[in-house]
DNA sequence: GCCGTTTTCGGCCCGACTGTTTTCAGTCG
């Protein structure tokens, strides 16, 4: 096994371009130049193919959206030398650590620069010290409230690093929505923002409501029992912090603006910018109040923002239609080509939970699951599945009670017994087989050959060098009996980093050997993640969406996997377990 | 700095709120 060259990955390239933009912002550069760096960073971050692969293939980087001559040069430099000279130069003038300060509430580029130039503050720690000493409120443009806000922000930062997993947000928001809906004045309330786009983690929650008595509803909102602190509370906008430290914003809008507000607050920002630009070209102005015809005689600087003839706004569909587009599913609104696809009429017909005909990874009491084979079977049948795969762990995963060959044969006897009583659903004989250090599998070949579907995955040696890890996975996929690579990166959101490996090479191998890759639906994993699933789709590798359930109720986690699949533009045809049983069996061979 | 069924130059999304102000900059979403 050889160690491949260590490339600068897309996320690192994106981060550095973003840092250049932020440093330019602090410097006071042309804001559109700043945005150019942000846009290029986003392109790189969400681009499925690694930049180093494009450079190696001799591709013209300026074909990428938001990448012109300069950005192409920057990307090329990072790929070939590992450095970005424009960032190095800027860092000499402005400390890079000021970027951390911008992320504090109440601190933007201007104030960060002021704090640095007036007080010599370069880091969050230094800022905390001078703020505690009362030096910040003395600065021009600052005051006592700003100083307190900064200190509060630093305290919050220390308390909670990272964002909320989508499933945690779901659990926290459900009771609040019920509370709001119980108020007689609330006609409608929905969640917008990244939550509605089903981004894997959310920073805060945006609620949108139509209400008769806005003041009373806002009152009801801020007195929700789990509110820890009320940040603001106005006539149409309020912000609270829940006891879980989740920030929730509520906006109350008139019914005729509801669709426009929902569209606007769902975002993403990049999607909205592109959408509004399209509207401008049609002589329209889009805001959260609606779509308006622009009066060509009026100076846009001085015109009332709500002036002009309203042409749409009550529903989202009307807002898109006014700009000549069909309604776009929220999961696609990331400015990853969805507006162009909408224009061409080629938006994908996205996969749904209802299209799933089976779940291809779950555990029973035979290893580390909490429910018996029969209980899991009944749970799957209750969810309307045609089939499911029982994938208990293999022997090397001792802590889970993994099965050796003898135990697996015993399990098969129980399976025969259970399935004889339950003709309503097909149980596929399977196992989640560990990939060992050298890429060999933790189950005898003659047993693998008797499985209906063989799932392999890594549970150990997460920190091998990338080249070694890649070779290990590739060897496992080359095994003739293997059908699915489960949770390919091994990441645990907010807990464990993904393993280092060459995804491109692994997908090529999967394609060559007709192996599917899993999109693990468990909200702790969501592995592969959306942008990686895009790469699999583009390379023609089939995807499996599985829950990895360890108890019956976890079978309902399927929706999280499907939602991420939708973010990756997957249609049913891309997903192996949307196939009817006979077609699935034929594919598995 | 990017980009083009109005444009290769002159644009680049939109509005609200807060705090620090005496008419508005800065931040936020």
Question: What's the SSE blueprint?
Answer:
Elements: H1 10-27, H2 31-46, H3 51-56, H4 69-81, H5 85-93, H6 98-102, H7 109-119, H8 124-132, H9 144-159, E1 164-165, H10 166-181, E2 186-191, H11 193-197, E3 201-202, E4 204-211, H12 214-222, E5 227-233, E6 237-242, E7 247-252, H13 258-266, H14 269-281, E8 284-287, E9 290-293, E10 310-312, H15 316-322, H16 338-344, E11 358-359, H17 373-382, E12 387-390, H18 405-421, E13 426-434, H19 445-448, E14 453-457, H20 466-478, E15 484-485, H21 503-512, E16 516-520, H22 530-539, E17 543-546, H23 558-567, H24 581-588
Parallel strand pairs: 4-7, 11-12, 12-13, 13-14, 14-15, 15-16, 16-17
Antiparallel strand pairs: 1-3, 2-4, 5-6, 6-7, 8-9, 9-10
Helix pairs in contact: 1-2, 1-5, 1-7, 8-9, 13-15, 20-21, 21-22
This protein binds one DNA strand of 29 nucleotides through residues 30-37, 39-40, 65-71, 105-111, 140-146, 149, 193, 204, 206, 232, 234, 236-237, 249, 264-265, 267, 269, 272-277, 279-281, 285-289, 305.
Describe the structure concisely:
The chain contains 24 helices and 17 strands. By secondary structure, it is α/β, with parallel strands linked by helices. The mean pLDDT is 90.
Write up what this structure looks like.
The structure is a single chain. With 589 residues, the protein is an alpha/beta fold. The protein has 24 helices and 17 strands. It has a 7-stranded parallel beta sheet. Helix 21 links the parallel strand 15 and strand 16. Helix 1 crosses helix 7, helix 8 crosses helix 9 and helix 13 crosses helix 15. The longest helix has 18 residues. It starts with 9 loop residues before the first helix and ends with a helix. The model has no long low-confidence stretch (mean pLDDT 90). The structure holds one DNA strand of 29 nucleotides.
């Amino acid at each position: 096994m050889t160690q491949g060259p260590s490339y600068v990955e897309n996320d690192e390239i994106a981060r550095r371009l973003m840092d250049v933009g932020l440093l330019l912002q602090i410097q006071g550069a042309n804001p559109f130049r700043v945005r150019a760096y942000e846009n290029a960073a986003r392109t790189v971050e969400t681009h499925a193919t690694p930049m180093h692969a494009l450079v190696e293939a001799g591709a013209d980087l300026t074909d990428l959206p938001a990448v012109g001559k300069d950005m192409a040069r920057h990307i090329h430099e990072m790929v070939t030398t590992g450095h970005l000279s424009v960032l190095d130069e800027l860092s000499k003038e402005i400390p890079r650590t000021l970027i951390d300060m911008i992320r504090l509430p109440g601190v933007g580029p201007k104030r960060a620069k002021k704090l640095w130039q007036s007080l010599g503050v370069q880091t969050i720690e230094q800022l905390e010290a001078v703020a505690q000493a009362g030096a910040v409120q003395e600065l021009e443009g600052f005051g006592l409230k700003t100083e307190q806000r900064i200190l509060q922000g630093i305290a919050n930062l220390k308390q909670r690093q990272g964002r909320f997993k989508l499933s945690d947000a779901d659990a926290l928001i459900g009771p609040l929505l019920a509370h709001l809906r119980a108020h007689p004045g609330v006609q409608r309330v929905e969640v917008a923002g990244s939550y509605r786009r089903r981004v894997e983690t959310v920073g805060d929650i945006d609620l949108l409501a139509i209400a008769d008595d806005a003041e009373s509803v806002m009152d009801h909102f801020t007195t929700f029992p789990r509110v820890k602190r009320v940040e603001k509370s106005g006539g149409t906008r309020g912000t609270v912090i829940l006891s879980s430290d989740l920030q929730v914003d509520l906006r109350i809008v008139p019914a005729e603006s509801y669709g426009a507000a929902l569209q606007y607050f769902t975002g993403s920002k990049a999607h909205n910018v592109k959408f509004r630009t399209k509207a401008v070209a049609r002589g329209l102005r889009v805001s959260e109040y609606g779509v308006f015809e622009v009066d060509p005689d009026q100076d846009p600087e001085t015109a009332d923002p709500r002036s002009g003839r309203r042409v749409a706004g009550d529903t989202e569909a009307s807002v898109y239609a006014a700009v000549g587009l069909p309604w776009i599913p929220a999961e696609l609104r990331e400015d990853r080509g969805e507006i162009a696809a909408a224009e061409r009429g080629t938006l994908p017909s996205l996969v749904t939970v209802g299209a799933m005909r089976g779940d291809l990874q779950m555990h029973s009491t035979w290893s580390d699951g909490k429910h018996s084979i029969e209980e899991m079977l009944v749970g799957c049948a209750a969810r309307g599945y045609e089939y499911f795969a029982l994938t208990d762990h293999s022997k090397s995963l001792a802590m889970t009670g993994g099965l050796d060959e003898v135990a697996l044969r015993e399990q098969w006897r129980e399976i025969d017994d259970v399935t004889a009583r339950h003709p309503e659903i097909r149980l596929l004989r399977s196992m989640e087989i560990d990939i060992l250090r050298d890429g060999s599998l933790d189950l005898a070949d003659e047993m693998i050959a008797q499985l209906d579907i063989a799932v392999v995955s890594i549970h150990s040696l997460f920190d091998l060098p990338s080249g070694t890890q890649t070779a290990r996975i590739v060897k496992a996929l080359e095994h003739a009996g293997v059908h699915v690579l489960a949770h390919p990166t091994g990441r645990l959101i907010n807990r464990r980093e993904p393993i280092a490996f060459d995804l491109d090479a692994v997908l090529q191998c999967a394609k060559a050997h007709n192996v599917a890759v899993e999109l693990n639906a468990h909200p702790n994993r969501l592995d592969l993640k959306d942008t990686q699933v895009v790469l699999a789709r583009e390379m023609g590798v089939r995807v499996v969406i599985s829950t990895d359930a360890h108890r019956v109720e976890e079978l309902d986690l399927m929706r999280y996997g499907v939602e991420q699949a939708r973010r990756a533009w997957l249609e049913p045809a891309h997903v192996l377990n949307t196939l009817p049983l006979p077609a699935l069996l034929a594919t598995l061979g």
